[in-house]
Structure formats: C-alpha cells, structure tokens
Amino acid sequence: MDLVIRDVRVVDGTGGASCRADVGITGGRIAEIRRDGPALGGRRVLDAGGLALAPGFIDMHAHSDLALLRDPDHSAKAAQGVTLEVVGQDGLSYAPVDDRTLAEVRRAITGWNGHGDDIDFTWRSVGGYLDRLDQGIAVNAAYLIPQGTVRMLAVGWEDRAATPGELDRMRRLVADGMREGAVGMSSGLTYTPGMYAEDAELTELCRVVAEYGGYYCPHHRSYGAGALQAYEEMVALTREARCPLHLAHATMNFGVNKGRAPDLLALLDGALAEGADITLDTYPYTPGCTTLVAMLPSWAGEGGPEAVLARLRDDTVAERIRHAMEVVGADGCHGVPIEWDTIEISGVSDPALAPYVGSTVQASADLRGEAPWTTARRLLLDDRLGCTILQHVGHEENVRAIMRHRVHTGGSDGILQGTKPHPRAYGTFPHYLGHYVRELGVLSLEECVAHLTGRPAARLRLPDRGLVREGYRADLVLFDPSTVAAGSTFEDPRRLPAGLPHVLIDGRFVVEDGRRTDVLAGRAVRRTPR
C-alpha cells in the first residue's frame, strides 16, 4: 500500500453504522478496508488513533468559480474537508460566453467573485473552463451551465419571451455544455436576466439537460412571499421536462414563512411518492447572502449593469425603485417589503466604502441622519453595484427541519468576496458536524456524513466518489467528532475550522496535520455519460 490509515472509525457515507478498521490506499484509490485480522502494512502508515474517516465533503452549492483559479491555497474549502465543489450556480457564471457577455457577466457578479482583473479569461466555452480547471486546483470542481448567462448570449438583457430562433440557440448552447462535461444547469430566477425566462422556456432547456443525464438546479422565483408556490412551480416544470430537480439553498425565509418548513417538506414528500427525482441543499445558518443590487425589482435590471446605474442616477426612476422595494415588495427581494435593519453590508469593491461594512443599511443611515434608501442608493452607485450583503431573514426551526429530510444535502452557498463574508463560506461542513450533530443531536454522525458525501455523489452520478469503499477514489477527510467545529463566526468569518487534521484527494494530502500543503490535486469532474 502507498498509505495505510490505521485504527480509524470509518463513517462510509451510506448512513450505515460506523466501524473501526484499517484503510489502505494505492494509486489514489481505496485498495482495502480491513476490519479484522492483522494490521495492514504500507510504505507510509498514519495512526489515526480513532479519528473518524469519511469521504471528502461535497459542496453542492459553491461560488468559487474564480477563487479556484486565483487562490491555489483555497483553505476556505480545503480546510473544511471539502474535496469537490459544484460551481456555475444561480444562473450566472463565466461559460459559455462571448467577449460581450463575458464583460457583462463579470460586471453583474463582481460581488460574488470579484472583478476578475487578476484572471486570464482564455476560455469561452464550458469545455474550455473545465480544461482550465484541469491545470490543477486545490479541490475538485463540477460545473452547472448557467441559464442566465445562456440567455444573455441568445437574448440579451431584455424582459421578453425568447423568439423561436433564440430558444433554438439556447438549446444548442445547453447541449454543447452538457457534451463538454457539465453536470446540469442552474438558474437564478430572482436575478436578471435569467428571471425573465418563462416556464415554457425553462422546460425546453430542462428537456435538453435530461437528455444528457444532468439535473436542474434552480434558485427559484421566491424564498419569501409565494415561496411554496415557487417550489411547486419548479416541481411541476421538471416533471413536465422529465428532468431531475435539485433545489438550491432550499430555505423558507422572511416572516411570512416562519414555521412553514413542514409545508415545503409535505410538498416534496408528495412529489417523491409520485416518482419525482428531487434533492436539495441547505447551509446550516439563518442569514442569507447575496448582492445589494439583487434586491432591486426586475424591471430595474433590464438592459444590464450600466442601465441599472443610469436608472439609479435618475431621481424619478430611483423613487419608483424605492417604492417597489419598501412598499410593494420587489421580486428581487422575494416579494417582501425590504427591512433595512436586516440588510448588513458584508463587502464592497471600493476600499473607500469600507466604513459601511459590518453595519446594516438602517444603522448606517441613522448614523448619517438620512433615509435608508438614500444610503443604499449611494452604495449602489459609488460601488458600481459591487457590494455584497447578509440578509438576516431566516428561521432556526426551518433550518433544522429541512436538514433532517432524506433528500437533503449540504451546500455552503459560500461567497468568498468582501471584508466580512458570511461565515458559511469557511464553516458550513464543520458547523454541521460540530453544532448540529455533536451539540444539538439534530442528526447522527452517520446520517450527517451521508448528507454531505454519499447523497450528493449520487445526485452528481459519480461512480467512484462519495463513499469509503474499496475501488473508490481516495478523496477522504479525517476529523475528530469530539472537537470538530467551525472557527468562522459573523465577527471573524475567515477563521479556519478545528478538528479536521487531514484531507486527501486521490490519496494525496491537501491538508496534513492541520496545515494546507502545496498539493494541487483537484481537477474538473465531468458528467458521467449514461
């Protein structure tokens, strides 16, 4: 054996009972799991001393599209035990693009991934992006075709139905991306321009995804007012398209949904009983995280980022935007009138605006003696739409109820930009294990590991990942169940976790004795052909 991990508690990712064993690794794969008999021998032996050994964690909702390229260390995820991230989320990412669209999408999601001035955008296709990842990254990555970017290419930023010719082009773009290795398609149906697509258009694109064995991952049209109807819409749409459905960050937020997680779970249970193929992901925190510009009504986003800025500069139009947000409830804010004391500025692109970070819009406005919309409008204009926010609108009882469900998986939704990012970016997986398993007992250790490994691997149709099983890739994490914990907090969001001393990808240590090595063992994980 190249490596033997001796005397380890194997938590294999199936949800079944754990067991003590020696695990031998050769050629980057698990060669033997020996529960009885003489100890395994190898060229290197790691005495685990009863640490838990699990498959590497799979982050089903990541925003590391550019971070994987700019940050070889990427300890935000590697130190959590994440060995695979799914990027291309929420309908907006960097492939497929042309020169015009690339410039537009870089502007649109600066708050998620930065300007990208430090990235050499040599690719334009999905396959080109995956090839770039194959040059060596910290952890593995799979890619979802972003439906909003596809619509940008074919239709632009107009709020209208696609023409038959435009729909045909979108079908071809999705088919190309699937052939090149994408695992499915994402949407951001509260983000422009993806939110301008009608259900019939989305259904046609989902049919293409299904033909290639992928899945649809929507950030659906509302997590606030009308959230349950938005979930029903996605279930019905994918049933019509005969496409597997994975619900992104499947929360029930805002005051209108307090205590309503059982309604969502009943909807899902009914669909599952009828044969629907549905999974979901959540992060184990109550606040959400996005960009401030995402809170605006959809009509304000028509035409792209420069058109948004022009509307914000116009006093008359800006007043219409304020009224939609504060009185009516903008679709960008999930149909709920915005509460400025729940909107915390977490990051800005312009360093001169740093004093706003860490305060709510309401608190900043009070400090300046002005209305909160005045503060928000100034931030949007001065930061050229680049500021990110935390939105404190979640409910702990909903978080716990949803994470118990049998189709639940873990996803950080981690945005790594900003001075004060959401702690989920650095803490999601140890927070599940430390807080919700050890401290609260919401899930057993074996159940939780299955939610974070075997179940997402099955959704991604990975034939040799997600389980501790002979013949599988040695993407593994060793952790101490008695001490594992998220280090990140809302006050100190980039602190690394505790209790995860070793992480391996293809049998190579990317974290060893709690320290990040210089190994870049990650590669693109492409869709497995049927």
TrEMBL record:
GO function terms (MF aspect): hydrolase activity, acting on carbon-nitrogen (but not peptide) bonds, in cyclic amides; hydrolase activity, acting on carbon-nitrogen (but not peptide) bonds, in linear amides
Amidohydrolase domain boundaries: 44-511
InterPro entries xrefs: Amidohydro_3, D-aminoacylase_insert_dom_sf, Metal-dep_hydrolase_composite, Metal_Hydrolase, Metallo-dep_Hydrolases_sf
Any one GO cellular component localisation term in the record: cytosol
| One Pfam assignment | Amidohydro_3
Output this protein's name: N-acyl-D-amino-acid deacylase
What lineage does the source organism belong to?
Bacteria, Bacillati, Actinomycetota, Actinomycetes, Kitasatosporales
